[in-house]
């Protein structure tokens, strides 16, 4: 069988990845607090055979709370617990900070999730870099060296704790009265410069043994951490060339750590507004984000290097403006923005194309998303995508019904889950406790 | 209406509170890892209109793992998340250490539970005193002064974070596009000697505003902490006299903190083996715990102050032994043990009465449990009980069908939930953020 792509879905605040999602028709504006809604969206993604859900986490609240919902779930682990109870196959991945959590607490909650989901848990181990997050813990953000130093120790400790109840330790034999094999339940007695734990953790293996490690980050420190521990990288990149370079950096880092580079998958972000046609997609995006356009025009000016008039949103750029425009080398989105501008779209429509979104944005019919994904995947730039639907209420179904079948038809995406666990879904090799190779 | 008692249920490892529960007929020996089972037992308690479930937590593993299950849930919060999704009315209370958790993390997970359960969450805020627990965090147990110092700060911070999104802050008005009232979302900027947080927490109020504070402990420090913050005390006591004294100490402490003493409820522990008659109860208890009797005889010797012969378990104490016996003043269970011994039961049956259990133990028909509860309750010794069924698989139903109806018949226990939230169930007054009185 030819290689197929992995697709994950971002599941955030209960509304969607675009500002204004909470106000869209059909959306319950109380979904921020609705676990029912999040379970429903997870089920929709599972219907599309997506390999995993990804719940990023701050934890902090920044942004325009007067007009927009916080980005994150109330509590990512509690949300995934609810979703674990309401789904059967899809992987469940949450961000957990190595800087602001005790290893023992991380080990316990993620392995409990792994048990309750029957082997579908993944931990996106990140160091947290926001001072706003640190302040919630009465701290300042440590240096990158200290953060990554602690991250290395924390992941090792957590994996050691996961393995501290040996693979076959849990006997539960009623006949003999033997509950567990004590010889296979051992303290870990590990400690370093930053964290320590005696252990053992008192949780037996899940169907996949232990959770899968994810990482998100782009620095050399991130490459080293992910290369050593991660099976999946949650990437952010705007071009095939950059994606290729990033993917290679992580593969090199894995190899450097003594692992097979195919054990680490690079997954690029993508935002979706799937609609019947481009025009319908743009109109939907305008309804979602139009309120922010006057302010986004200022960004676009910098990206294109020409003055733009926020009061003339419905007009395309003039010939003079297009001729004078120079994509900013500081922003990788600029070339795409200029390309769209040259197609003659109005200022409003240019912005509606998502040229300033956090990830490449598809606004239009499903086939355009499928084409984008095929191009990147076949170029060897990515092992898959994590998509951020604009509005969960109908945007997940739009992707599942409008994009997934095309990818399946083209042989690029599986028609059903091959296995039962997240390890199966992302091709992560069996592991229990610390990987002896790294 | 006359005052009625509160009843909570201990929900531990998935088997029951007695060693050997995991091996009993009808019990799935894999229940330690089964969230389905725990949800089922919670539903049974809810059928009995119990006010809350109580999930204690170590977190550590100590004990005879070769023969017995760990006492605690894999992860109390993940377990309660599953139970929140599978129940409607019963309160959900878990222990969370103030020593080994960051206030921001505690605030977030408990308030998320409160939201997902529609106002049924309670936090048993304890300081943790076991070196085995501390070692899992690479630490030693701090002094009592430091632990309680941190506990006071932590509860205050957590409550401040709970109130940092004001009661009416969440507008979610689609028409006007106003998501929240920024004026009511404020940083807390609190910090003391031990912990600090800037906030705000980004979670709106639940149906009960914020979770209810529980506490468990018996020292003067515990009285002061509970008197200031708690609405329910998870007690441990063996006699009416002691229970009265403990209850009064907590009430005095509440008054000292400027609160109405009726705002704090003292709930005593009770273990149950409910059966058709006393003999059937004793036989059930022997099946559950008989394996431990030879070693428990050694305890009983100390309690009664006479030598006993572990090889003659089936014989009652001799007249000489009974005459020589002196209940140990060090162990409040001793007088009851001697009383049982004098009734002529065999050594095995004496132990099967649960005379060395962690709480007063009822082994026999439901009416005996009801009588015990009525006596204590009407003596003003307790505001209610938290029961620990011997085996969840059938022990919860045995209590619900064998004890609850008698209590209801006698007017001692409600016939249905009066309200929807845990605050309603335990008579805790409305509170949002920090109680201004304390």
Automatic annotation (TrEMBL), chains A, B:
The keyword RNA-binding does not apply. InterPro entries: Diverse_substr_monoxygenases (IPR051260), Luciferase-like_dom (IPR011251), Luciferase-like_sf (IPR036661), NTA_MOA (IPR016215). Keywords: Flavoprotein, FMN, Monooxygenase, Oxidoreductase. GO terms for molecular function: monooxygenase activity; oxidoreductase activity, acting on paired donors, with incorporation or reduction of molecular oxygen. FMN binds at residues 57, 95, 148, 219. Residues 27-380 form the Luciferase-like domain. It holds the Pfam family Bac_luciferase. Belongs to the NtaA/SnaA/DszA monooxygenase family. This is Nitrilotriacetate monooxygenase. It comes from Limoniibacter endophyticus.
């Amino acid at each position: 069988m030819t290689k197929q792509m992995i697709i994950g879905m971002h599941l955030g605040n209960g509304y969607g990845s675009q500002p204004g999602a909470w106000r869209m028709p059909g959306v319950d504006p109380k979904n921020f607090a609705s676990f029912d809604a999040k379970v429903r969206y997870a089920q929709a993604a599972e219907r599309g055979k997506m390999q995993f859900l990804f719940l990023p986490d701050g934890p902090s609240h920044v942004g325009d709370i007067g007009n927009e919902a916080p980005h994150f779930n109330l509590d990512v682990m509690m949300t995934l617990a609810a979703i674990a109870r309401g789904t059967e196959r899809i992987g469940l991945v949450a961000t957990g900070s190595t800087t602001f959590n005790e290893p023992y607490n991380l080990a316990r909650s993620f392995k409990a999730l792994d048990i309750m989901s029957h082997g579908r848990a993944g931990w996106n181990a990140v160091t947290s870099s926001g001072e706003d997050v640190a302040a919630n813990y009465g701290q300042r953000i440590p240096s990158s060296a200290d953060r990554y130093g602690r991250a290395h120790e924390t992941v090792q400790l957590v994996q050691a704790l996961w393995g501290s109840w040996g693979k076959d330790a849990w006997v539960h034999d009623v006949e003999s009265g033997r509950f567990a094999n004590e010889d296979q339940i051992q303290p870990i007695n590990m400690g370093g410069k930053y964290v320590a734990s005696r252990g053992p953790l008192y949780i037996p293996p899940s169907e996949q043994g232990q959770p899968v490690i994810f990482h998100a980050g782009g620095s050399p420190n991130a490459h080293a951490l992910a290369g050593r521990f991660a099976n999946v990288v949650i990437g952010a990149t705007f071009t095939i060339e950059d994606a290729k370079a990033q993917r290679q950096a992580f593969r090199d880092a894995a190899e450097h750590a003594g692992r097979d580079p195919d054990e680490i998958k690079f997954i690029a972000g993508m935002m979706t507004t799937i609609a019947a046609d481009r025009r319908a997609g743009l109109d939907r995006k305008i309804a979602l984000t139009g309120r922010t356009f006057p302010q986004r025009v200022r960004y676009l000016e910098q990206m294109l290097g020409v003055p733009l008039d926020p009061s003339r949103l419905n007009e395309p750029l003039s010939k003079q403006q297009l001729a004078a425009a120079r994509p900013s080398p500081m922003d990788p989105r600029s070339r795409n923005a200029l390309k769209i501008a040259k197609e003659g779209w109005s200022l409003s429509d240019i912005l509606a194309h998502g040229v300033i979104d956090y990830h490449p944005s598809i606004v239009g019919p499903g086939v355009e998303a499928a084409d984008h994904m095929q191009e990147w995947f076949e170029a060897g730039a990515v092992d898959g995508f994590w998509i951020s639907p604009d509005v969960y209420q109908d945007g997940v179904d739009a992707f599942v019904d409008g994009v997934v079948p095309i990818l399946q038809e083209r042989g690029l995406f599986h028609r059903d889950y091959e296995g039962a666990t997240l390890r199966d879904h992302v091709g992560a090799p069996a592991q229990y406790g610390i990987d002896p190779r790294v």
